[in-house]
Amino acid sequence: MFKRDLLSRRVLLALAGMALAGVSLGFFKRAMFGVDPYQCFVNGLANVIPIRFGTLYMLVNAVQLAVVFFLDRHYIGISTFINLFLLGYMAEFSEAALLRIFGEPSMALRVAFLLVGVVVTCIAAALYYTADLGVSTYDAIPLHIADGKPKVLGRVLPFRAVRILSDLICVGVGLALGAPVGVGTVITALFMGPLITFFRRTLSDPLLARGRQG
To answer: Per-residue confidence of the chain (214 residues) as pLDDT tens digits?
Structure first.
């Protein structure tokens, strides 16, 4: 019974994390200050591959899934496939809903959307990292490196450092392909790693620990 309750809690954390991840992308897009680094990368690809964003997002993640499969299958799970097949479409739905409710946002509302997008993105990642039922294919590679496989220059780098590096690479590629880059992109590239670590320590890990104690 205990193991079943703990698994149920992990599944709920994973589903909540992925749902929030999709919602946060809609806030980023309506803020119009630039999207997070990975979306910047995908948006850059969208400039040269003229297909629907949700479909392109799924195809890019499918390629990364093949890479992660050979790197470390531990990171592949229910969250990975929710991200792969649904997140792009959830982002489209979230963006359309915000447009329908708020119309064209004022500058103050755009700033509020940006702040919500950053915080919710980091909370979402913290939830599905802690659930340990798979992560997005993009998140799996920094986690793999942060686990010390492989070492970078003979050292094991902390996750926050690896995440900042991978985010900066995505921003560079996206920018080269003509993706919109703004203050939101810069903020997420520099601060998502530390914020995810913070929310894991203060929110998602304690939530799972309560299930273990119960």
So the answer is: 446 667 788 888 888 888 898 899 889 889 988 877 888 898 899 899 888 877 887 888 888 888 888 877 878 888 788 777 777 778 888 999 999 999 999 999 999 999 999 999 999 989 988 888 877 788 888 887 777 665 555 556 777 788 888 888 888 999 899 887 888 888 887 888 888 889 999 988 888 887 555 5
Q: Which two tokens stand for residue 214?
A: 């119960």
Most distant CA atoms of the chain, gap in Å: 53
Q: What are phi and psi of 155, to 5 degrees?
A: -125, 155
Q: Which of 118, 128, 114, 115 is nearest to 203 (CA)?
A: 128
14, 131 contact by CB (below 8 A): yes
Residue 119 in contact with residue 194, Cβ under 8 Å?
A: no
Domain ranges of the chain: 2-213
Residues 6+ apart with CB under 8 A from 205: 130
Contact 11, 133 (CB under 8 A): yes
